[in-house]
Amino acid sequence: MINNKKLLAIVPVRAGSQRVKNKNLRKFAGSSLLEIKLKRLKQIKEIDEILVSSDSNKMLNIAKRFNLSTHKRKKYFASSKATNSEFFKNLAENINSDYVLYSPVTTPLISKKTIQRCINSLKQKNKKNYKSIATVKLLKHHMWLNNKPLNYKVSKSPSSQDLPNIMAITYGCCIIKRSDMLKFKNVVTDKSRFIVLDDIEATDIDNELDFKIAEYLFKIKN
Questions:
Q1: What's the Cα-to-Cα distance from 85 to each of 70, 74, 145, 192, rounded to whole Å?
Q2: Dihedral sign from CA coordinates of 133, 136, 142, 145
Q3: I need a surface site. Which of 8, 14, 115, 149 has the fewest CB within 10 A?
């Protein structure tokens, strides 16, 4: 719970993964990304309920085997046709909880300690300046957008460590009130507290190379 309010963890998985075939269920370090995520979340005592949302009966059956809740997602919201905003709003409409902890299986290296830190950040009584928590990684690169430098001037190019702190949301752990999830159609708000991850915990699986690197790192860490 978060200050006596129900905390629901959502694990979204779908059958039609595009860039990494069958990534949620294929062998990963002797298990699968889905099972690894469920085992990690079950270690967090503040989580009142864990729900797997999927269009795949096979994945929902795995959740049931873990004695967890399930949400059968409609095909549209499990397809690339649905925008992120539509997807998040649909999830929020189909759950009953005060708070939501969103953690997809593509972030297998986020630790129990970090998830605990995110929860504790929202439990703080002096929390006034933020509505949600989101894990991020810092991008210290000379970046360009629309053929123009985004975070520096060409004539005054700083060392990479002196560039502005541009942050990329990793979605490893995002916590938000359900009411705000409906309002913003997202798992971050206009006032989020960002928890910066190191390069290992920030690992996100988006392609085959990511999958292999993440599996290698997971074996080392575990």
A1: 21, 15, 23, 17
A2: negative
A3: 149
Tokens at residue 107, please? 């972030």
> By the 8 A CB rule, do 128 and 107 touch?
no
Contacts for 220 with CB less than 8 Å, ≥ 6 apart: none
Report the distance separating Cα 199 and Cα 47, nearest Å: 26
> What's the pLDDT tens digit per position in 142-183?
999 999 999 999 999 999 999 998 999 999 999 999 999 999
Cross-strand bridge partners of residue 136: 169, 196
- The two three-digit tokens of residue 66, written as one number: 């873990």
Q: Is 30 left (phi over 0), alpha (psi -120 to 50) or beta?
A: left
Residues 6+ apart with CB under 8 A from 112: 40, 43, 44
- What pLDDT digit, counting tens, does each position of 108-142 carry? 999 999 999 999 988 775 566 789 999 999 999 99
Q: Do 137 and 197 touch, CB atoms closer than 8 A?
A: yes
For residue 143, list its beta bridge partners: none
Q: Report which secondary-structure segment, H or E, holds 177.
A: strand 166-177
d(CA 137, CA 197): 5
Tokens of 27: 């062998």
